[in-house]
């Protein structure tokens, strides 16, 4: 959003015309109290009824003449608010397009509801709030000018009574604006955090139950609710102080004027002047003051919060970067990895999805030893699938080197890559043909015995039997997502490639089936009982329990990725410790492999 100074500086003529029309409106305020005082002092109280009526007629004429100035005020107001809204809409559209180009990882079936809200609801909030503030502040300023000039013209002593509480109340109110805006922002943040936390618990309840993390999730959600309660109490206290300020500025001047009436009369202030002063207070100053304070306290605070969020939302989104994650030595668990050339080496890899987009992976280092089972965990969109694509050779990094078995993946044919690694994505591919054709797609020369062994090891025998056996014709449309994934896993298990990458390839399986599949791949063997080319397994984890089954875990958290064992990460990674905190408090049985 353009800065206020730059925005207003480009519309000086509009502001001058707005001030001119408002000045005419302040003349009506001045005449209202002054004419009433003169009608009393020079007319009715002096026995000159005609003179009194004449002064009242002048006051009435000033009221009737307020229509054209008000029309001019609204015409100039439109020239301020509509360009502001148009600028916000254009900026929101540009940012939504930039987000789609620079952050493709966040582009999925769900639309950017934040952009839709900014284009519709939030821009209207800003326009309406800004228009209301301009109207009310302008009305108070020029009504105050007319009223104070009128009080000075009637009797300077009146200002000694009215001005101090008015200034004190306004100063007290202005002092509460920024703290109240901050309190309201904190309240909205806490409220959104509660909604997000509850939504995350609802969406991930299967993982929470599978990990036994119900108590931990309840504790964290309870803390969010407590924060929301505290922020609402703080907001209520500032609202109460604002009410006190309104009373000081709005009601105290009238009370002091009534109390000081005997003293004012002794100073020579006339009855008409007192009546005029009350008119200025009750008919002009206090209504305008009440409207301004209400607008600034409600619409003004809301405007500050919405504009702040609009500016945050329109900032160029920078996905969490992945600094260098140095592969540290870790003890082998259960199996003894080979100490020869590593299965995978990622050296100083950086990758972005466009020349102007921020890197998804930045200067990443990773070493996976032969025979290792590695899990990759982290928030959605952090770069886990990108890492799987880079390692498998499907995505060419912008900088750095990827080695499989000590040889670079770049420049290799599709068949050469297929001989070195197999990647199973979340959306499993199954084609029309026999079950056998689907399972032998990556290794057509596998024997029937090897096929039966793979199906049995992964627990797919009931599925193959239901489909009619290995030679039955397969209709992909008749399969569920979980059944497709199970067949794709059997296909990958039969592959002779030493490296297996499972990119959330078990997300549609139940936890028990997922654990069974990961153990099978971790101990991946053929009928002769030997490990397939002393390979490795990399799992982009869908469930947190996958990390417990791995030898080491790579945590991509957007700040400082960590690579180590489960026990090491509980100490070195705040994100990992937060996800698995309940295991630190209660003993956990060993996780089977």
Short description:
It comes from Streptomyces niveus. This protein has 593 residues and is α/β, with parallel strands linked by helices.
Task: Report on this structure.
By secondary structure, the protein is of the alpha/beta class. It folds into 3 domains: 1-155, no CATH class; 158-269; 341-584, P-loop containing nucleotide triphosphate hydrolases (Rossmann fold). 62% of the residues lie in helices and 9% in strands. It contains 22 helices and 12 strands. It has helices spanning 4-9, 12-44, 49-64, 67-102, 113-154, 157-203, 205-211, 214-250, 252-259, 261-266, 271-314, 384-392, 414-420, 435-439, 448-457, 461-467, 481-494, 511-522, 545-549, 566-572, 574-579, 581-585; strands spanning 344-351, 361-368, 373-377, 399-404, 407-408, 421-424, 433-434, 473-474, 499-503, 536-540, 552-555, 562-564. The strands form 3 sheets. It has a 6-stranded mixed beta sheet with strand order 6-9-10-3-11-12, sandwiched between helices. It has a 4-stranded antiparallel beta sheet with strand order 2-1-4-5, with helices on one face. Strands 7-8 form a two-stranded antiparallel sheet. Strand 9, helix 18 (511-522) and strand 10 (536-540) form a beta-alpha-beta unit. The protein is elongated and about 125 Å long. Its main location: membrane. It is found in: Cell membrane. Keywords: ATP-binding, Membrane, Nucleotide-binding, Transmembrane, Transmembrane helix.
